[in-house]
C-alpha cells in the first residue's frame, strides 16, 4: 500500500486553495507521506496515473442518520414504530444493522470519507464505527452520538432518540452513552417541520432548559461536546444559554443569538438539503400538506438567515445534509455544497473548504484529515473536472482513497425521482 498519484491536479482543501499541478502525492500505508516534485524517484510505489484529473480531500458530512435511505414516500411513516420493528428481535436487528452498514459504505463510495452521525438505532453507529476501524467493514470515518436524547412528544422520540423526563434521567442517558463510547452527545431540543400541527409551529421548544443544562453539564464533565437539533429562534437561544456547542439546522438570527454563539464558542451546522423540498417543491411532489409546506419555508428561510449572519460574524459554519430525510440520500453530499453557494452566497472554493478542512477542524480531526498534507491520513477523492468550476462533478467521483486504500467506487443505485426533482435546484 505505497502509492504514487501522478499526472493529477491537486486541490489541498485549504481555505484559499488553488490548483497545484506538476506534483506527485506519495502515500505509505494509511498516511500521506509527501507531496513532491515529478522528478522524485517513485521506486517501490505503485503508480496511479490520474490522467489530468483533480484530486482533493474526501468530503465530510456533518449531519447523517444511517437508518434511512432518503427515498421519498407518499405517506409519512411512524418512525417510532419503524424503529421498534427494526430492533424487535435478533433477526430484525441483524437486518437493520446490515442496512446501516450498507448506507455507511454508500457514503464512502460517493466521496464522503468522514461522517458525523447524529441519531441512530440503539448503539449501531458505534458498532459500525468500530468494525470499520478494525478493518472488518469498508466505510468512512465515523464520529457518532448513537441515539439522540429527546423528551416525550419531542423530535424523533422513540426512534433515533431516547426519551427522558427530568434532569436525573438526562444525566443518566448521557452516562449510558458514555459507556457506549460515543464521540459526542446529541439533543433534540425543538420540534421540526413534520411535528408541527399549525402554521408557525415548526421548531416549537420541546425540551425544558433545566434538562438541556443537565445533559450539557454531564456531557462536558465527560469531555464530550453537545450538538442539538434546533429549528426556531427561541430554541437557538435556549440551547446556547444552557451549554450546547453546535446548533444543527438553525433559525432566524438576531444580535443576541450572535453574541451567544460567540460567548459559547459554538458553531452552526447548516443543513439546507432537508428543508428545500418542503419549502420549494409543489405539494403534489413533496406529498406534504399546506401547514408542512408553510413551516418548511419558515425553516428553510431560518436556516439560510442563520448561516448568512454566522458567516458575516465569523461564527464557524459546518455543512451537513441531514441524510435520511425525504429527498436526502446517502450519495448526495455534493448538493449541499451547491445550495451553500446558491442560497448563502459563498464561493465554490469556500464551499469545498467548508466540506473538507473546515468541517474537519470543527470535528477536532483537522490534524489528521481534511486536507492533502504530509502526515495526515490519505483520505482523498478524484474527479475528472475541477469542482471549483463545477461542483456537480463531485456527484461522480472516479477514485476514493480511504486511509490509504484505493477504491474504484461501487455502482450506486440512484433514485430517479430524487434526481429528477432536485437537479433543477442544483444549477448555479
Q: Would you summarize the structure shown here?
A:
The protein is built from 13 helices and 18 strands. It has helices at 79-86, 90-109, 124-133, 167-179, 209-221, 233-241, 255-264, 275-280, 283-286, 290-312, 333-344, 348-362, 416-422, and strands spanning 2-10, 20-28, 31-37, 46-49, 54-57, 59-64, 112-117, 141-144, 148-151, 161-164, 185-188, 226-230, 246-249, 267-270, 317-319, 380-383, 399-402, 405-407. Helix 11 crosses helix 12 (348-362).
Secondary structure: elements and pairs:
Elements: E1 2-10, E2 20-28, E3 31-37, E4 46-49, E5 54-57, E6 59-64, H1 79-86, H2 90-109, E7 112-117, H3 124-133, E8 141-144, E9 148-151, E10 161-164, H4 167-179, E11 185-188, H5 209-221, E12 226-230, H6 233-241, E13 246-249, H7 255-264, E14 267-270, H8 275-280, H9 283-286, H10 290-312, E15 317-319, H11 333-344, H12 348-362, E16 380-383, E17 399-402, E18 405-407, H13 416-422
Parallel strand pairs: 1-4, 1-5, 6-7, 7-8, 9-10, 11-12, 12-13, 13-14, 14-15
Antiparallel strand pairs: 1-2, 2-3, 5-16, 16-17, 17-18
Helix pairs in contact: 4-5, 6-7, 11-12
Overall outline: globular
Uncertain stretches of 5 or more adjacent residues? none
Q: Beta-sheet strand percentage?
A: 15-25%
Q: Please give the CATH class of the largest domain.
A: Alpha Beta
Secondary structure: number of strands? 18
- The computed structural class is alpha/beta
Figure out the total of helices: 13
**Name of the CATH architecture of the largest domain:** Alpha-Beta Barrel
Mean pLDDT: 97
Q: What is the helix content?
A: 25-40%
Radius of gyration: 21 Å
The CATH superfamily name of the largest domain is: Metal-dependent hydrolases
Number of domains: 2
End-to-end Cα distance: 39 Å
| Main beta sheet | 8 strands, mixed
**CATH third-tier fold name of the largest domain:** TIM Barrel
